[in-house]
Amino acid sequence: MTTTPTTMTPACPPDTLASSDAVLTVDGLRVRFDTEEGQLYAVDGVSFSVPRGKMLALVGESGCGKSTTAYSILRLIQKPGHIIGGSMRFFPRDGHPIDLAALRDKDPLLYRIRGGAISMIFQEPMAALSPVYTIGNQLCEAIRLHQHLSRSQARQRAIAMLGHVGIPGPAARLSQYPFELSGGMCQRVVIAMAMIGNPQLLIADEPTTALDVTIQAQVMGLIKRLQGEMGTSTLLITHNLGVVAQMADEVAVMYLGRIVERGPVRQVLKHPAHPYTMGLLASLPGLARSKAKLPAIAGAVPSLSQRLPGCPFHPRCPHAQPGRCDIGTPPAMQSFSAGQYVACLRANEIQPGKVPQ
Ligand SMILES: Nc1ncnc2c1ncn2[C@@H]1O[C@H](COP(=O)(O)OP(=O)(O)OP(=O)(O)O)[C@@H](O)[C@H]1O
Ligand code: SF4
Ligand SMILES: [Mg+2]
User: Which of 68, 231, 257, 264 is positioned for an S-S bond with 44, CB 3.0–4.6 A?
Assistant: First the structure.
C-alpha cells in the first residue's frame, strides 16, 4: 500500500469537528484502485468527523466507497488499492493525535491500534471467526494481544464479555466452536471480540446484513447499548436509513466516493438538502416528511473509472441544470443549516418534494 504522508495541522478544516469533540477526523481521504478496467477512485476526497461518544452513520448505495473508507481508517487497503491523499487523525483519550494516513504500513503502532483503540466489525461477520478454534480460544487470543493478562484472567474477562453481550451460559460457550452457535449468537461473539479491548472507536460495517430482521434489531440495540455503557464512539456503515434514524446521532451520505451531505440525523432526515438524500428518503415512506414523493433515483451509478465533469450526481439528478451542474469541478461542501453541510450548487433553490417535469 502506498500512502501520501500528510503533515498534522493544528487548525481543523471548517467542516470537521475540533479535536476535543472528535475521536476521528478524516480530511480529504482519497483511495484509488488500479485495475485493468482503469483507475477507480473509490474514495475521492472524503471528509467527516466521528463525534466523541456518539455514533456517525455512513450511508449510500452499494459500491459508493463505504467499506473502502472503513478499511482505510485501519490501513487495511490492499493492492491494487492505494491511499493517495488525505489525513485521518485519531485523537486518543490520552496521548497525542495520530495521523493514521501518515503511518508506515508496518508501523508497530498500527498493530497496537487495530483491535485495541480502534476495532472493527466486518461486513462478513462469519469471516471474523475461525471455524477451527473454540470461541474461548479466539476471545482469549484477542484479549492477550492487547492486554497484559494471565490465561485465567483472560478467561474471566472473556466470560464477563460474553455475558455482557447477552450470551446465556457464557462459561460453557467458551469450549464451543462457531458452528455450534446460531447466526445471531455468532454475531454477539464477534461484537464481544470487537469490544473486548474497550475500543475508543468502533467501526461497524453493515454488522447485521447476514441476520434475519428480528435478530438485526437486537444486535443493533446491543451495539447502541454497549456504546453508551463503554463510552465508545461508533462509525456505523449501513445502507438502511431506518437504522440510521433509530441509532445514529450524525449521518454522512456518500455517493460515488464522495460525501454529498452530512449533519445531525434529525436535521438531515427531516430537511434533506441534497437531491440524492431526498431520493434515498423517498424510498422509505415511513421516513419521508411529506406524502409527495420524489420519483425513485433514476439511472444507475456511473462507473468509477469515468470521472464526469461537474457534479457526480448530475446524470441522475432531477434538478440538474445543464451548463451549470455538468461543468467544472464537483461542488464543494457548504454549510446549509446549523451543523448540516451539502455539496450541491442548487441546495438553496430546490424545494423538497417538487421535481421539475
Ligand atoms: N480490491 C478491489 N479491487 C478493485 N476495486 C475495488 C476493490 N475493492 C473495492 N473496489 C471498488 O471500490 C468501490 C467501492 O467499494 P466498497 O466496497 O467500498 O463499496 P461499499 O459502499 O462498501 O458497497 P457495499 O454497500 O456493496 O458494501 C467499488 O466500485 C468496488 O468495485
Ligand atoms: S449540483 Fe446540480 S446535479 Fe448536483 S445534486 Fe445539485 S442540482 Fe443535482
Ligand atoms: Mg461495503
Answer: 257
Q: Give the count of alpha carbons within 13 A of 251, CB side only.
A: 30
Cα 62 to ligand 3 centroid, rounded to whole Å: 7
Q: What is the tens place of the pLDDT at every residue in 204-247?
A: 999 887 777 777 888 888 899 888 988 999 999 998 888 899 99
Q: Is 51 left (phi over 0), alpha (psi -120 to 50) or beta?
A: beta
The beta-strand segments (E) located in the chain are 22-35, 38-51, 55-59, 81-90, 98-99, 118-121, 201-205, 233-238, 250-255, 258-264, 334-337, 340-342
* Nearest ligand 1 atom to alpha carbon 304: 29
Would you call 98 helix, strand, or coil by DSSP? Answer: strand
Which one of the ligands is nearest to 42 CA?
Answer: 1
Using CB atoms within 10 A of its CB, is residue 108 exposed (0-12), middle (13-18) or buried (19+)?
exposed
User: Peptide bond before 80: cis, by omega within 30 degrees of 0?
Assistant: yes
Contacts with 133 (C-beta within 8 Å, 6 or more apart), sequence order: 141, 177
Query: What are phi and psi for residue 268, nearest 5 degrees?
Result: -65, -40
Who surrounds ion ligand 3 at CB < 5 A? 66-67
How far from each other are the two terminal CA atoms of the chain, in whole angstroms? 47
Q: What is the pTM of this model?
A: 0.90
Q: Name the residue at shortest CA distance from atom 7 of ligand 1.
A: 33
Burial string for 264-290 (b: 16+ CB within 10 Å, else e) reads bbebbbeebbbbbbbbbbbeeeeebee
